[in-house]
């Protein structure tokens, strides 16, 4: 190799070694983590039941007639007639029970269920869900749920003060549901599999097509659109479809991530994607704070004057426009770190930063999609 070409090759290698670490590396994931197979899905189940054994935190029966009717009907099925009795228990709560029937679930499979209070129960802690049929969208019973309810929060207090943490009106029954009816899913003789992308994207769909064709042969897979990739089952796998799916799901794929900023205004949470870019821009931001204070005063007449004592309102209004903020210049951000450093230089709170991001998007300097949740 000539000496000049050798020097150029070494220089190019050194240059690439300096540039590549600065570029954001896209993570490779398994194909099974970004797709689902069409037809292989879960089914939503719902039911109505009763939770018993509560420590006085159940529904008030006079305010929740459905709880009283359900309790009376349950006792009558057990041979106890309470039609003329005045039931006043606070140890029972009416709940809506939900669950997801996973695909290929066989009879006897145990699933987790969720119980949520329907009445004015204060807490389901310590309760037990009694036998509750779980129905599908067609009205058929697919599972039956029963078991102790596990509540993540707690509530305690007295007459003057109470303490609570988390949500105590809903809980889970681990392995509390038992599958009684199967949902048939037949894939044994399938000639075509359709793969649905969880995050539709044309680039990701084409990468999946290329990976499948390299693994199972040319023209085996084809991307139909940005959300669907079709795979023709090779003849060697017609009788061994689980082996095909297992090999397919383990293929490494580099998904394309869009430039997106996700904003939750209720909590002030901001998530910035790695592909977000910003042009050079100058930003200033100030808050207008108006504080209104009510301090009513009592006007009392002199003794034996015959006047009346009245309350005179007094209102103080303070205005602070916070003009101390400076004009900050955010340089061009070519990486996520540059963008974060530039926005942090403004010294803004998360809720103020949301307004700045919206203004940047309106000005055209922010090259990303703003998604509010």
From TrEMBL:
GO terms for cellular component: bacterial-type flagellum basal body, distal rod, P ring; outer membrane-bounded periplasmic space. InterPro entries: Flag_FlgI (IPR001782). Keywords: Bacterial flagellum, Cell projection, Cilium, Flagellum, Periplasm, Signal. One of its GO terms (biological process) is bacterial-type flagellum-dependent cell motility. Residues 1-27 form the signal peptide. It comes from the Bacteria. Its main location: other. GO terms for molecular function: structural molecule activity. It is found in: Bacterial flagellum basal body. Assembles around the rod to form the L-ring and probably protects the motor/basal body from shearing forces during rotation. The basal body constitutes a major portion of the flagellar organelle and consists of four rings (L,P,S, and M) mounted on a central rod. Belongs to the FlgI family. This is Flagellar P-ring protein. It comes from Teichococcus deserti.
């Amino acid at each position: 190799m000539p000496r000049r070409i050798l020097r150029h090759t070494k220089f190019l290698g050194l240059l690439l070694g300096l540039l590549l670490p600065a570029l954001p590396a896209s993570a490779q994931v398994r194909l099974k983590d970004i797709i689902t197979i069409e037809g292989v899905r879960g089914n939503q189940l719902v039911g109505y039941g009763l939770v018993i054994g509560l420590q006085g935190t159940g529904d008030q029966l006079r305010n929740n007639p459905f709880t009283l009717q359900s309790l009376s009907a349950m006792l009558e099925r057990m041979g106890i007639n309470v039609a003329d009795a005045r039931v006043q228990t606070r140890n029972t709560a009416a709940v809506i029970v939900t669950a997801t029937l996973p695909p290929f679930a066989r009879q006897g499979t145990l699933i987790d269920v969720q119980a949520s209070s329907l009445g004015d129960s204060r807490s389901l802690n310590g309760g037990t869900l009694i036998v509750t049929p779980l129905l599908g969208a067609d009205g058929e019973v697919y599972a039956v749920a029963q078991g102790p309810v596990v509540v993540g929060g707690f509530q305690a207090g007295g007459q003057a003060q109470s303490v609570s943490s988390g949500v105590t009106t809903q809980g889970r029954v681990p392995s509390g549901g038992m599958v009684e009816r199967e949902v048939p899913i037949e894939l044994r003789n399938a000639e075509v599999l359709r793969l649905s992308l969880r995050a539709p994207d044309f680039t990701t769909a084409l990468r999946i097509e290329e990976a499948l064709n390299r693994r199972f042969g040319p023209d085996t897979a084809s991307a139909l659109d940005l959300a669907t990739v079709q795979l023709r089952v090779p003849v060697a796998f017609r009788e061994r479809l689980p082996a095909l799916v297992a090999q397919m799901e383990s293929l490494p794929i580099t998904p394309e991530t869009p430039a997106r900023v996700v904003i939750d205004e209720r909590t002030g949470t901001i998530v910035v994607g790695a592909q977000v870019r910003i042009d050079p821009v100058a930003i200033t931001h100030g808050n207008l704070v108006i504080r209104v204070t009510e301090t009513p005063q009592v006007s009392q007449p002199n003794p034996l004057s015959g006047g009346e004592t009245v309350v005179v309102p007094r209102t103080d209004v303070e205005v602070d426009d916070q003009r101390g903020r400076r004009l900050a210049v955010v340089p061009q951000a070519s990486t996520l770190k540059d963008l974060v450093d530039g926005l942090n230089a403004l010294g803004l709170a998360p809720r103020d930063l949301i307004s700045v991001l919206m203004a940047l998007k309106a000005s055209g300097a922010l090259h990303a999609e703003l998604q509010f949740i």
